């Protein structure tokens, strides 16, 4: 079992920055990928960024150059640094972790980009 707890969401003006954190606990040895999904209002959930156990990253095209996913293995934590935020980035952001057989989700944290 893996538990994921997100933090760092909030209200920010366009052009601003936020850093999301996701702390993993439990059977974390089984995780081979972690990422951040987001669900904008009225839209389907989409992958924003992901990082593998080997450190390979990938991003949704619309966030490339603005978002950076990283990890701190010592803290069992993955981060999403979000810069140059746009209103279109407004969404509930969910931390995700995948093992060979299971998917785990955090509770979600709201990010609102508005002037």
Your description of this structure?
The N and C termini lie far apart (40 Å). It is globular, with a radius of gyration of 13 Å. With 115 residues, the chain is mainly beta. The model has no long low-confidence stretch (mean pLDDT 95). The chain has no helices and eleven strands.
Helix and strand composition category: mainly beta
**On the 0-100 scale, what is the average pLDDT?**
95
Rg for CA atoms: 13 Å
Strand content: over 45%
- Count the DSSP helices: 0
Largest sheet: 7 strands, mixed
Quantity of strands, as a count: 11
Question: Could you tell me how far the N terminus lies from the C terminus, measured between alpha carbons in angstroms?
Answer: 40 Å
Helix content: under 10%
In short:
The chain is mostly beta strands and 115 residues long. The protein is built from no helices and eleven strands. The strands form two sheets. Strands 2, 4, 5, 6, 9, 10 and 11 form a seven-stranded mixed sheet that branches.
Task: Walk me through the topology.
Blueprint: E1 2-7, E2 10-12, E3 18-26, E4 33-39, E5 46-52, E6 57-59, E7 67-72, E8 77-82, E9 91-98, E10 103-105, E11 109-113
Quickly list its features:
single chain, seven-stranded mixed beta sheet, mainly beta, four-stranded antiparallel beta sheet, 55% strand
